[in-house]
Amino acid sequence: MSHPGQERRHNPRSSAVALDDGRLTWTHSELRAQVSAFADRLRAQGSRVMATLMDNSAAWVVADMAATQAGVVHVPLPLFFTPLQIEHALASAGVDALLTLPTVAARWPGLPQHAIEMAASDLLLISLPATPVAMPPHTAKITYTSGTTGTPKGVCLSDAAMRRVVDSLARTTEPLGIRRHLCALPLAVLLENIAGLLAPLAGGATCIVLPLEQIGLSGSSRFDAARFQAAVVLHQPHSVIVLPQMLRSWVEHLTQTGQRAPASLKLVAVGGAAVGPRVLLAARELGIPAYEGYGLSEGSSVQTLNLPGADRIGSAGRALGHSRVRVAADGEIEVAGSLFSGYLGDATPVPEWWPSGDLGHIDADGFVHIRGRKKHVLITAFGRNVSAEWVELAVRDQGLIAQAVVFGEAQPALSAVIWPMRADETDAALQAYIDAANATLPDYARVMRWTRGRDDFNAGSGMATTNGRPRREAIWQRHVDALLCAEAVIAD
Predict the structure, then answer these.
(1) Which uninterrupted H or E stretch holds 277?
(2) How much is the pTM?
(3) Which of 317, 297, 395 minimizes the C-alpha distance to 360?
(4) pLDDT tens digits for 195-216?
(5) In whole angstroms, what separates CA 153 from the centre of its chain?
(6) Residue 214's closest CA among 348, 435, 48, 57?
(7) Domains in the chain, ordered, with CATH?
């Protein structure tokens, strides 16, 4: 595979530009030619399942689209996966070809190093001695969810299901006139792959694909808001997708430095978890047109989205054209319309309506409201059901708190482990944030005691998954002495 654009150093920028990596640009026709060339190579060598392990780049885009064109299953692997997670994914999916960079391959000594072919001056295509594995019919992509354990689960997606989401997003956002999208999340993450790459390209827009370090993102959860703001100012995108913590940090940086987001922005979609009204309103005051959405890998990414002119703060938006959403009798959100084909290694048929595991409701105007994960509902010693994530969002929404994890199963009152955005935040300031959150909550859902986190909430400390979700049991075990000590004080 030749590196897109390597023969050409000065491409004119125009509305026909498909990719921009900050140095070079490629038109849609040039991109299609690169995709066809690499698809031919995959067919010629008989690849069945190709994994990619690389940073955001034009080459990643070519590989993704070429796999679809060649009928090869694509397994995108995030760079923040651990070596064990990578090895598990390669083996469980029967990967027979791995596209990566020499520098990346060197970081993972466990990767097989035989049968290496140079695919380009800066890419390796590594042939692996894989044993074919059974997959659901029409599997085109396998996205691995990190979940709350160390072993990621393979979600098998068909091209038809993904295309329904892509086309729906392209139609929905067309009135916004988005011509430039900045890819701010790893392309290996399904949300950015579908909503931040394939959907903008389907609408004829330019995708700006920079190495993630250039936009301030490293690993799964380290984010430099100053670098991100500089990249947004430099590249003047119309749209970008961010995670809630990225938005909080961005808002805090702009507030502290007296800056505003560039006027080019028309849509900043926020996904991955709930945001909170205070942060959304603060973002909009700073020129960030932030709108919350909701989706899941089993639904091929985005299911609902707030949009300019169709927005209700506190909700996850209305169902998009490809999606159907309903609420089961127990309050669990169920989705249909673009479902996955099944889990890798699990022959259980996928039902017409998929239980999301999230609790919520749909209001009279069709806006979907998410309360939190069904499995994270606590039952206090007084018999009250409390969604831990509801309380956690209320705490994070009040101030400079990066993470809050709430406990209280069979306890008379709720407790929390708190991780502030700034290490120098005083206990008094944190207590003030918690008091403000408690004022918005009923008495049975208030945080009555808390302790600071003893480790950063990331995968390296074991306190979070590789995509930043808290590992609740690990956090409890790490802080149980402090929380039980607080309980004893209350009891006295």
Answers:
(1) helix 277-285
(2) 0.82
(3) 317
(4) 999 999 999 999 999 999 999 9
(5) 15
(6) 57
(7) 17-133 (3.40.50.980), 160-335+364-374 (3.40.50.12780), 380-491 (3.30.300.30)
